Input
Amino acid sequence: MILGPASALLEQELAQEVRRQGIVVWLDRDCSFTDFVQRLTERHAAGDFEHPVVGFRGSFMELLFALEAHGSGYDRTPLLIHMPGFNEDSIRETPVLELYSAGTRFRKALDTLIRQAATGRVAPDQVDQFLADKPTLEQADAWLGQASSRSSMGLPALLEASGPMLVIEALCGADSTLARQVKTDAEIEALRDYLHTLTGMDAEWREFLPKNGKSDLDGVLTALGAWLLCVEYVHDLRREPHLPALRRLKGVAPTLVKMSCKLVSDLRDQHADAYERLATDVEGLIQGELEVMTAEDLGQIDTFCEEEERVLAGAVAALKAQDWQKAQSWCKAREGGRSPRLPRLARPSPSSHGLLPRSRPMKTRWHAMLRRRFGWTVRTAVSSRNVRGGWTTACRISGPCKRSWASCDSCTGIGQTSWPRTSRAFAGRAVFFPSQTCASATCTNRSSSP
Output
């Protein structure tokens, strides 16, 4: 039995979930997948689906007898239990509660599944029109199957088979598979249609960007790169965007947002240099948005370098105001590998023997900022240690005691502020939480060096 696109996607997701979790209880509140589960049971009997499937069909007695062959629920034997018409509250009043507590809950709305299966196949506006009629899973499979059959040859077939991988490759440089495949106006239009179905990028967005005399393919890829980064930025932002062109990105469908963010994440992880160049170019296009941005507006992902600078400046201001909780919250959101540029900027070299990262650009920018804004100088001291994959460095910061975060009322001289040995990685740099004593050589409250 050949499954349709939506059914095949759902079966793949269920197989991964059962393989990873063991016992999976599927709460099908709207009873949208009863026929699909019946076919899945038949596929398991025929050996086409590896995990056993048991469904509730109106009798708990029959369900319990069917479950007897699959263990007690404590050995986590792979098992999929379909419970149509039940939610998180009503399932607790059934005999399946023991398995529900021992296993993992699974939920999937039919319209969400259809949108996921339609990504890269059908334009978002056509998906909305189709969902307005409240189709069944079988109707969705037939509709998506027809859309797939129209792109069974040439560039559309290539994009449907390997589109995301080809898109990431094309964003990295001129010598790519798409550069060799996309030559004619018809192929350019086919690529635009595919990117519209994959990410939601539309003609209105392309009109927002300057042309700059680029070729058709370069223009499409430039618009795509800006779209992907701006979608990630907008949906991580804690306020409404300032620019109208960015404000409309809030309305992008969640499945398209998820795909766009995945493409950005893959590009950032696999091609850091290309990502840096793209982010720098896009920053120039949305300068009006970045100028009004504050540290409090930002979420947990620093898509652009300017975001890191704003959060770093905000953290320094919070530390000066002794608002330790705010600075620590920004620090925790970005420590370890969660800062996009941390793996690239703070990667230790083989000569460091696992102690100090040889990351001159990171150190230079951090020290220059402190000298420029606060008049402090920084001397690296002792060692570094690894915190959840991030590098931290113990330092001493010298400067006027009255401008120091650990200033002392009894001291008016120039001294060194004493810092504790513990610190946290923050956006690829080091952030230090000061002690409350003064290290000036002339101060009576002088503390020992760290």
